[in-house]
Specification:
The complex is a heterodimer. Chain A contains 3 helices and no strands. Chain A is mainly alpha-helical. The chains are: A mainly alpha, B alpha+beta.
Chain lengths: 90, 438
C-alpha cells in the first residue's frame, strides 16, 4: 500500500499511518498522541505496526532504530520513515 | 498483556522448546527410507482434497513421500534429515538424548535454522519452505524439531536485532554446527513476562548478566544462549556462551514430552562478557522484543504440530488397514473411520493456517503476526486431539512408552504450553478479533 515507488513525503507517510491505525483502533488518532501511553497498542499490535511501517514504505528498521520512542506517535514514526528513506524534508 | 511468552509459570516450558515429537512414524511402519520422511511430506494442499487423501494412503504404504517444497536442495535436506533420524526418534525419547554428532550434523547442514540468509552461510529458505521442512522433521521426531524451533528463533533474533558484525559472527556460527537456545522463562515469569528479573548491565566495556532461566529448550546441547532480560528501564537480549564462567546448565529431569530436546534450567551468576554480546536493538519494551521472537517460534511450533498430525495419520491409517477385529479391518468400523476422517481434516486445516501465516511472513505484511498465533493455537489443539485419537485407534499396539503415537500424545500436550499457552493465545486472538471485527 502506499508509496513504495515514489519518495514518501511527510504528508503521505502520516496519512498512511493514521489510516492504518484508524482501521485497527477503530477511531481517529491525532498525530501527536502517545499511542502506548494511551493504551491503544498491545504488544502484538505493536509488532504489526513495526512490520507495517517496513512493508508500506520499503524501509528496514535496524537494531539501533528499534526503539519505543520511534513508534510512540505518528509524528515519530513519520520522522523515522523519512530519515530511513532519505526523503526531502526529513 | 504480556505476550505470552511462555507459558505458564510452573509448567512453562519455555517456550521455545519443548516441543513435540512427532510420531515417528517412520519407524514402525516405515523403514526410514531415504528421502523425505515417510509419509509426512505435506500433501500439497492445493485444491484436491481427494488427491490428498489418496496421497496419505500411498505414503503410508510405500513410504515414498515427496517434499512439498520445490528445489533439489530442499528435497536433499528432507532426505538428509530422514537419514539422520532414521528409526531412532523413539529411542532418543526414551533415553532423553539425541546424539551430539547428529545435532552437529543437522546444524552444519543448516537445517536447524533453515531461513538464515545465504550471505551468512545459511540455506536462506523461505518461511513456506522452511515450514514444510519443519513439519517433515516434526513428523519424525519432535525433540529434533524443538531444536529447530530454538535455533531458528535464536538466528532470527540475531538477524532482526543484531548489527552487521553480530549477524556475521553469530549467524555464521549457527550455520556452521554450533547450536543455540533462547531463554525467556523464569521461575517468576512465565505467561506474565513483567515478572522477568534477569538483568543485563553494562559495566565499562563489559556486560554482566545475572538471573535464572527455566525450561530453556535445547540448552543442554547449546553453545550459545540468547538471553532476554532487563536493561535499565527497558529490555534487551544478550548472547551468552554456555561455557562462560558463571553459567550453570541443569537438565530438566524427565520432561513430559520432547524428552530429548535438552530442556534445562540456566543459572546466570554474574556472567561477565564483552559488551558487544548485547544485541544492538535493545531499545524496545520487553513485550515487544519477546513477541517478536515468539512470533517466529509460534509458527515453527505450529508446523511441528502439522508434523505430529502427519505422523499420527501414517500410524493410524496403516494400523486401521491391517488390524482385523470382528472379521474385518478396523478401517471398516465406522467409529474408527471417524477418527481417521477427523485426523485428516485436522492436518489439512492446520497446514492451511500454517501456510497462510508463512506466506504472510514471506510477503512481509503485518497480518502474519496474528496469523502465527492463530496457526499455533489451532495446530496445537488439533495435535493434542489428533494424537489422543491416534492412541485410541492403535489401542494396546500404541499404548506403551516409545511408540510413535504414545510419544505424539505426550509431545503434543507440550505444544499447548510452549510459545504461549493456549489460554494466552486465546486472549491475544480475542483482542485481535475485537480489533478487526467490532
Amino acid at each position: 500500500m502506499s508509496a513504495q515507488a515514489t519518495q514518501p513525503t511527510r504528508e503521505s507517510v502520516s496519512e498512511n499511518l493514521l489510516a492504518f491505525l484508524e482501521r485497527r483502533i477503530k477511531s481517529a488518532v491525532a498525530p501527536d498522541v502517545d499511542l502506548f501511553e494511551a493504551g491503544m497498542v498491545s504488544s502484538l499490535f505493536a509488532l504489526e505496526l513495526v512490520v507495517h511501517v517496513e512493508k508500506a514504505f520499503g524501509v528496514t528498521i535496524g537494531g539501533p532504530d528499534l526503539r519505543l520512542d520511534n513508534f510512540r506517535t505518528v509524528e515519530a514514526m513519520t520522522a523515522l520513515v523519512l530519515r530511513l528513506s532519505e526523503a526531502p524534508g526529513a | 498483556m504480556p505476550d505470552q511468552a511462555t507459558a505458564d509459570p510452573a509448567a512453562a516450558p519455555e517456550n521455545t522448546g519443548p516441543e513435540n515429537t512427532a510420531p515417528e512414524n517412520t519407524a514402525p511402519e516405515n523403514p526410514a527410507p531415504g528421502n523425505s520422511a515417510p509419509g509426512f511430506a505435506a500433501p500439497d494442499f492445493a485444491d484436491q482434497e481427494i488427491a490428498a487423501v489418496e496421497i496419505v494412503g500411498v505414503r503410508t504404504v510405500d513410504l515414498a513421500p515427496e517434499p512439498a517444497w520445490p528445489g533439489a536442495d530442499a528435497a536433499d535436506l528432507a532426505g538428509l534429515v530422514t537419514e539422520l533420524i532414521g528409526d531412532q526418534a523413539g529411542a532418543w525419547d526414551l533415553d532423553g538424548h539425541i546424539p551430539r554428532e547428529i545435532v552437529r550434523e543437522l546444524g552444519r547442514a543448516g537445517v536447524l535454522c533453515a531461513q538464515a540468509p545465504a550471505a551468512h552461510g545459511g540455506l536462506g529458505l523461505s518461511n513456506v519452505d522452511a515450514g514444510e521442512l519443519t513439519a517433515h522433521v516434526g513428523a519424525l521426531c519432535s525433540s529434533t524439531r524443538s531444536l529447530m524451533t530454538s535455533q531458528g528463533m535464536a538466528a532470527w533474533t540475531v538477524e532482526r536485532f543484531g548489527d552487521d558484525a553480530q549477524r556475521a559472527e553469530y549467524l555464521g556460527r549457527l550455520t556452521a554446527g554450533e547450536t543455540a537456545g533462547v531463554a525467556f522463562s523464569e521461575p517468576g515469569a512465565g505467561s506474565d513476562l513483567s515478572g522477568m528479573a534477569t538483568r543485563i548491565e553494562t559495566e565499562g566495556d563489559s556486560v554482566v548478566v545475572t538471573g535464572q532461566k527455566v525450561w530453556v529448550t535445547g540448552a543442554a546441547y547449546a553453545d550459545l544462549l540468547v538471553v532476554f532480560g532487563r536493561v535499565g528501564e527497558g529490555a534487551g537480549a544478550v548472547l551468552v556462551p554456555t561455557d562462560a564462567p558463571g553459567v550453570t546448565v541443569t537438565r530438566v529431569p524427565d520432561p513430559l514430552g520432547c524428552r530429548a530436546a535438552g530442556h534445562a534450567d540456566v543459572l546466570l551468576d554474574g556472567v561477565r562478557l564483552p559488551a558487544d554480546h548485547v544485541l544492538a536493538g535493545a531499545g524496545l519494551p520487553l513485550e515487544w522484543l519477546v513477541t517478536s521472537a515468539l512470533t517466529y517460534g509460534r509458527l515453527s511450533v505450529a508446523w511441528g504440530c502439522v508434523g505430529i498430525l502427519r505422523g499420527c495419520l501414517a500410524e493410524t491409517t496403516r494400523h486401521a488397514r491391517t488390524r482385523q477385529q470382528f472379521g474385518r479391518p478396523l478401517a471398516d468400523h465406522q467409529l474408527v473411520a471417524r477418527h481417521l476422517a477427523e485426523l485428516h481434516v485436522a492436518e489439512r486445516a492446520a497446514t492451511a493456517l500454517c501456510a497462510e501465516a508463512a506466506r504472510g511472513r514471506d510477503a512481509g505484511g503485518p497480518e502474519h503476526v496474528s496469523a502465527a498465533v492463530t496457526a499455533k493455537h489451532f495446530a496445537a489443539g488439533a495435535a493434542v486431539r489428533g494424537a489422543a485419537s491416534a492412541v485410541q485407534v492403535l489401542a494396546s499396539a500404541g499404548a506403551r512408552d516409545g511408540h510413535p503415537v504414545a510419544r505424539a500424545h505426550r509431545d503434543a500436550k507440550l505444544m499447548e504450553i510452549i510459545e504461549g499457552s493456549t489460554e494466552i493465545g486465546q486472549l491475544l486472538l480475542a483482542d485481535h478479533a475485537l480489533a478487526v471485527w467490532s
